[in-house]
């Protein structure tokens, strides 16, 4: 019975902390436009690989310093 005096306030604090984090994430826009972000990741990866490969091919390797 004495353990409830510790566990109940701790559980209330835990619920309040989780609620605060959820409210902060909703208010800061973490859940806005979820589907478009998932699609953007897929499309950026395919488009970004070609340009990075071209940039690497066109730039010469750095010169090594003489010891």
Give a topology summary.
Layout: H1 4-27, H2 34-58
Task: Summarize the structure in words.
With 67 residues, this protein is an all-alpha fold. It has helices spanning 4-27, 34-58. The protein is elongated, with a radius of gyration of 26 Å. It starts with a helix and ends in a 9-residue tail after the last helix. The mean pLDDT is 79.
Largest sheet: none
Tally of strands: 0
Number of helices: 2
The first-to-last residue Cα distance is 75 Å
Q: Tell me the helix content.
A: over 70%
Share of residues in strands: under 5%
How large is the radius of gyration?
26 Å
Low-confidence stretches: none
Order of helices and strands: HH
| Global morphology | elongated
The class by helix and strand makeup works out as mainly alpha
List keywords for this structure.
single chain; 67 residues; mainly alpha; 2 helices; 73% helix; 0% strand
Provide a compact summary of the structure.
Helices cover 73% and strands 0% of the residues. It is mainly α and 67 residues long. The longest helix is centred in the C-terminal third of the chain and has 25 residues, at 34-58.
